[in-house]
Amino acid sequence: MSMPSLPEITFQAVSFGFEDEQILQRCSFRAPAAQHTILKGESGSGKSTILQLILGYYQPQVGQIMVNNNPRQPRDLRKQSSWLPQDLDIGDGSVRDVMATPFDFAANTSQKPSVTTQQEVWQKLGLELGLLDKKFRNLSTGQRQRVGLALCHLLDKSLVLLDEPTSSLDRASKQKVAELLLDHNRTIISTSHDPFWVDLGDNLIELD
Questions:
Q1: What is the pLDDT at residue 134?
Q2: For the whole prediction, is pTM greater than 0.85?
Q3: Is the sign of the CA dihedral 123, 129, 134, 140 positive or negative?
Q4: Which residues does residue 190 pair with via DSSP β-bridges, in sequence order?
């Protein structure tokens, strides 16, 4: 792991919104270290926004986000995190290129997997090796989702943020994802409407 200790994320009365829309109002919850926390709520309840707040892409207007009881430092936390957004768009190149790109960054070079390790993860997710030479944007939504999940696993970060990670997957694929990702050597925060995935959480946070 890339951190000496796994992160615990705490929201303390966090409010956030845009000029014409209040998204979060005094939101408080704790996502314990080494556990899988599920954020559940209707569309517009702020689930995706919470993930972006954690990473520092947005800043709270009121309240604090704490990491292991210290104020969150977004730049440091991003180095310790992998994130799968709902609409994964990571370039025009081949899948092989897309898989290699994150490991070119200084924070990730030490995590660069061997070809054998990458292929093992690929096959565990039910992906054909022939997909590596296809254009990423030509893949189906479910295939793109699994490529992103493979990357999240291979990056081997201590904090994994997943936005509706199983929305385009069949049950067999969901099971493969669960077997690969849901160990307790990382802190995972997911958003999900999917009963299969919600049942795999250690903690459930229901948003209004």
A1: 95
A2: yes
A3: negative
A4: 38, 162
